From TrEMBL:
The chain crosses the membrane at residues 12-31, 51-69, 90-113, 119-137, 158-175, 181-198. Keywords: Membrane, Transmembrane, Transmembrane helix. This is Polysaccharide transport protein. The keyword NADP does not apply.
Length: 201
């Protein structure tokens, strides 16, 4: 049974990964074409910075999934409840830490990167990047629990399917409106929707 689940997880993950790579490449091409070099540079910089912000997680999800695997397989509900409550608390702190570090980085951008300051509304853009990153931890407990319960394919379908839909909408907005704020807002809405989906599984 575990082997079948592992194979299904691999197939789902492989399909979504390749599809996202292709769609992501097309999105970047459209972005450069519609938004110009300056905003593209800002987006790439902010994407890299938020990737560093995600290091705050430090592999906690993987460790938690390993710890949850045994009590889930044995039906030890008391231990499952304890670990999920602990995980929820940890992720709340991480979410707050990401926001705090994001604010500090925002000041650093203002004082040390002149080329970024030349772009209008740059700090609103950065705020969206930070908030979107922080919000992903709102459902991290649920995705970790599903992963530990050998249901990674469910997690991947929700996150991967959500990302595919988000990118498709972002491409549409870039082509029709050329509005970067709407582009970022779609990401925020997508994260919130994923939270409610995970919460109600």
């Amino acid at each position: 049974m575990r082997t079948i689940k592992a194979i299904n997880n691999f197939k789902v993950d492989l399909f979504i990964t390749f599809f996202l790579i292709a769609l992501g490449f097309y999105l970047r091409t459209i972005f450069v074409s519609k938004m110009g070099a300056d905003l593209t540079g800002v987006m790439l910089l902010f994407t890299q910075l938020t990737a560093y912000l995600n290091l705050a997680e430090l592999g906690i999800g993987v460790a938690a999934a390993s710890l949850l695997y045994k009590p889930l397989s044995e039906g030890d509900y008391a231990k499952i409840k304890y670990l999920t409550l602990l995980l929820s608390t940890i992720y709340r702190y991480i979410s707050f830490l990401v926001l705090l570090i994001g604010i500090v980085i925002g000041f650093g951008i203002y004082f040390f990167i002149d080329s970024v300051n030349a772009v209008s509304h740059v700090f609103i853009y950065w705020a969206f990047f930070v908030i979107n990153t922080s919000l992903t931890y709102s459902y991290a407990k649920h995705s970790t629990l599903l992963t530990a319960n050998q249901q990674y394919s469910v997690v991947r379908k929700i996150q991967g399917g959500g990302k595919i839909l988000i990118i498709a909408l972002q491409i549409l907005l870039l082509v029709t409106t050329h509005n970067f704020l709407l582009y970022l807002l779609v990401e925020t809405i997508g994260v919130i929707v994923q939270y409610f989906i995970f919460k109600n599984i």
